[in-house]
């Protein structure tokens, strides 16, 4: 399948939650239903493999130490998820 950026995944989840709210009759019912679901989130792999470790295409590894890049990813993910 196609790669969907985190921002797009969050937007898709929001859209799906709104559909669930319509089906169940309220946002509270949807929230209760979704609170019983298990979510698996895998993130960061492509950011490292396709960005940080490919200095010929992306300057990330020249701009950041591994620790700084990890902190930048955490900051970016936090921004998307809050």
Automatic annotation (TrEMBL):
Localization annotation: Secreted
Superkingdom field: Eukaryota
GO molecular function, one term: hydrolase activity
Major location category of this protein: secreted
GO cellular component, one term: extracellular region
Database matches in InterPro entries: GDSL_esterase/lipase, SGNH_hydro_sf
Any Gene Ontology biological process: lipid catabolic process
The entry's keywords: Hydrolase, Lipid degradation, Lipid metabolism, Secreted, Signal
PANTHER family with a match to the protein in the record: GDSL-LIKE LIPASE/ACYLHYDROLASE-RELATED, OS01G0748500 PROTEIN
Similarity section: Belongs to the 'GDSL' lipolytic enzyme family.
Protein name: Uncharacterized protein
Lineage: Eukaryota, Viridiplantae, Streptophyta, Embryophyta, Tracheophyta
